Amino acid sequence: MIGNQGKIVLNHLQRAMVAEEKQGCCNTGVVGGFHLFLKGILSRLGQLEQDGDFSVLKDITHHYKDWSPLQRRQALAHLRRFLEEQKEPALSSQIDLKQDEREPKEPVETTDFHGPDSHAEDSHDKERTVRSNPSRALQYLKGVGPERAKFLAQLGLHNVKDLFFYFPRRYEDRSLRGIGELKDGEVATIAGKVVASQLSRGKIKVVKLSIEQEGRLIYGVWFNQTFILKQFPVGTSVIVTGKVRWQQRVPEIQATDIQKSGAAKLAEIIPVYSETARLSSKVLRGIIQGVMDQASEIFPEFLPSEEGGRWYSRAQAYQEIHFPQSFHSLGQARERLVFEEVLFLQLAVARLRAGVQKDDSPQLKDGEQLVKRFYDQLPFELTHAQKRVIQEIFRDMAETKGMARLVQGDVGSGKTAVAMAALLMAVGSGYQGAMMAPTEILALQHYQSLEAAFRPLGLNVVCLLGSQTKSERDKILSEIAYGKAQVIVGTHALIQESVQFHSLGLAITDEQHRFGVKQRTSLQTKGENPHVLVLTATPIPRTLALTLYGDLQLSALDEMPAGRKPIITRKLTERGRLSLEKFMDEQMDKGRQVYVVCPLVEESESLDLISATERFESLQERFPHRQVRLLHGRMKGAQKEEVMEAFQKGETHILVSTTVIEVGVDVPNATVMVIEGAERFGLAQLHQLRGRVGRGSEQSYCFLLSDTKNSRRLDVLCETQDGFKIAEEDLKLRGAGELLGTRQHGLMELRLADLSRDGRLVEQAYQFTQKVLAHPEHYVRVWQECDQFFSIENVGLH
Ligand code: ADP
Ligand code: MG
Q: Which portions of the chain have biased composition (kind: Basic and acidic residues) (predicted)?
């Protein structure tokens, strides 16, 4: 057994192995070469563990540099197994060699994961306590122990239930195949008998087993794993999985797995879990498999029989999603779980809304005069869409049933003017109106434009930000509380407890998708049931809207202000930079302004990232006669304000920034948008960024700089300006949670559902949600499970 020092060294090694594998086993996982790192580890171990046997490590260290990436990968897999054995000899060998690929419901002789059938009394007891409590810590599970429990915790797995939620990343098809049907390059599993074996010694030791299957031969090939010869001698019946190479008469299989085909029936579909340095997919599979028979206890059915009959039972679904009998049943299991997930989400959202929507909102209908004066001073005519949406809003605001309306309009469609009209209707009716924006920059922008438009009308507009000084803040807070401030703009500082409104009648949230459910609803709970309006530029597919907003009303701003020219969009590589800079110069000669957006400030996160600071400096050098300014998220509020203002006034020619300008910023004279490292952004985000130009009548341009070969998805942006198409592509590529900016908010994260593909299930869930909402008393069990699902403190309005 290895000592503590030795273990630390091995941990170190394992972490480096993960890095190396992530880099494709190119000997680059460690700076200076992975093989040299191995050498260092080896000599360290030699000192620490003088009687340890590290011949495997020695072999690999010796040859690593000369191997192909594939050979290296195999060697590392082998090494990993070896290391696990070094640390926990008894346990890991059982998992790896016996426990692994068994059919899930089969009783198993090893005791590490399946106690009761085959084991002594005390383990019975232990097992029973674990069973009766699904939230019992994992360390007490057989085969886990304190150390593994720690690693599981790092994956967010603390109890048995968590294990069920740790869904496989993918599945491997291990159905047995005939040699004749194998194709070159595929990964396949075959069964046969070892009829001959050979070992060719050279730099690399190649083990070759000749495996016969119904009169046909295939070679199983291993590199530097001579133990295979001993473990699977001639005459053994084996099952081998690996990549098929068929370039000669007899095919080869580069084996990643081999086992004796014994009596136990083998599972044909093997789940593959996301692994960490200390927990391989195999080990995870063993641990998860060990709790599968608790499924029916932990996940009792809650659907009433008339609904439940259409789906797999809950417990069955959880078992099948981990250890499917067939790909068909896997599909069924997934359907059930997606249905359930979407159902819970819809119920949670509906309840949130019910909690804030009562029938006593103020009737806001006396602002006509004020609104008319605002129209008269507007420098443009409203589009038909804007007029229509404003009417829809006014109709809602006149009712005591509070408004809950989502205005969806692509970037540049003029949502701000719509919001302004609504605010004026509220103020004209004697109430306050508030508008919340997701970033300080955007809040400031809104503040500036609202202030400019409303001051001539005699209104008092204030702005509340997180970064203000205490005295500034106190002054503003009191103005809000005493009603001196009629229109309030701010970031989520607005929803903090210290903010008391005098009479909040309308709450607007801009760029909705950037807020989580919780933040979104908190503004509504301020004041006496204000009317609620949300603005979003991200077109939300219908299915997603249903799920996220329940019965929220939708208004579409589906018309762009007249005279807009499509933005010319081009992909560029580094080579195009010179001509790009020349072009920027020409545009600036014409009096136009330029945005340059970079993915990150400072180089800390990754070496190849072009930092905004660096870009800023090089642009200053390149354009000594122009005003170049830098804007980034870590600047103070006042600093940001000053930089933004200078750009807005046209004093600054080039604004270099991080994505802080992503949403909402409005400078019509800026006609060029340059996006560095474009491949690092999501499509919807790029579309938003591009929307910062093309706001005036001049021709605008957007340049996507990207040096990755795989920048094909950027073509979507070059081809279309249609936010809907782009959002749909984005949804496909990134998943709904991320698109909605909700990953960090927990509540909204969908574990299985892919709302772009699961439209039918979302509709079905919607139908059922309506039933549950109509007669909540009939569906107590459903509500209970829903609470459990979100571990309720998030939702908290019940
Ligand atoms: P978004 O919908 O992206 O929030 P904004 O409200 O910022 O768009 O409007 C974009 C630009 O279009 C602003 O400069 C605004 O003044 C202008 N604008 C809004 N409505 C019209 C209109 N009907 N005609 C012309 N320009 C308009
Ligand atoms: Mg906007």
A: 97-130
Q: State the span(s) of the chain assigned CATH 3.40.50.300.
A: 368-557, 568-720
Atom 18 (ligand 1) nearest CA: 414
DSSP string, 96-109: IIIITTB-TTS--S
Ligand 1 atom nearest residue 382's Cα = 23
Contacts of 318 (CB under 8 A, 6+ apart): 164, 295, 298, 299, 333, 337
The alpha carbon of 380 and the centre of ligand 1 are apart by a number of angstroms equal to 9
pLDDT digits (tens, 9 = 90+) for 313-332: 999 999 999 999 888 888 88
Instruction: Write the class of the CATH domain 175-266.
Output: mainly beta
Task: Say what the pTM is.
Answer: 0.54
pLDDT, tens digit, for every residue of 151-189?
A: 888 777 888 888 888 888 778 888 889 999 999 888 899
Residue 592 and residue 650 in contact, taking contact as beta carbons nearer than 8 Å:
no
368-557 maps to which CATH number? Answer: 3.40.50.300
Give me the CATH topology for the region 568-720.
Rossmann fold (3.40.50)
* Residue nearest to ligand 1 atom 15, measured at CA: 414
**Ligand index nearest the alpha carbon of residue 438:** 2
DSSP 8-state code for residue 378: -
Atom of ligand 1 nearest to the CA of 510: 4
Would you say residue 224 has pLDDT above 80? yes
- Kindly report, residue by residue over 721-759, the tens digit of the pLDDT: 887 777 667 656 554 434 333 332 233 345 555 555 666
- The residue contributing the CA closest to ligand 1 atom 10 is 412
Strand, coil or helix: 32: coil
**pLDDT 10s digits, 574-598:** 899 999 999 999 999 999 999 999 8
| Res 113 pLDDT > 50 | no
Protein residues with CB under 6 Å of any ligand 1 atom: 380, 382-383, 386, 409, 411-417, 537, 561, 664, 666, 668, 695
- What element of type H or E holds 221? strand 216-223
The pLDDT value recorded for residue 110 is 31
pLDDT digits (tens, 9 = 90+) for 134-148: 556 788 888 888 888
The closest ligand to the CA of 412 turns out to be: 1
CA–centroid distance, residue 346 to ligand 2 (Å): 27
Evaluated on CA atoms 545, 546, 549, 555, the torsion sign reads: positive
Neighbours of 2 (CB within 10 A): 18
Asked if 798 contacts 351 with a C-beta cutoff of 8 angstroms, the reply is: yes
Where does CATH 2.40.50.140 sit in the chain?
175-266
- The percent of residues above 70 in pLDDT, for the chain, comes to 78
Identify the nearest ligand to the CA of 435 by its number.
Answer: 2
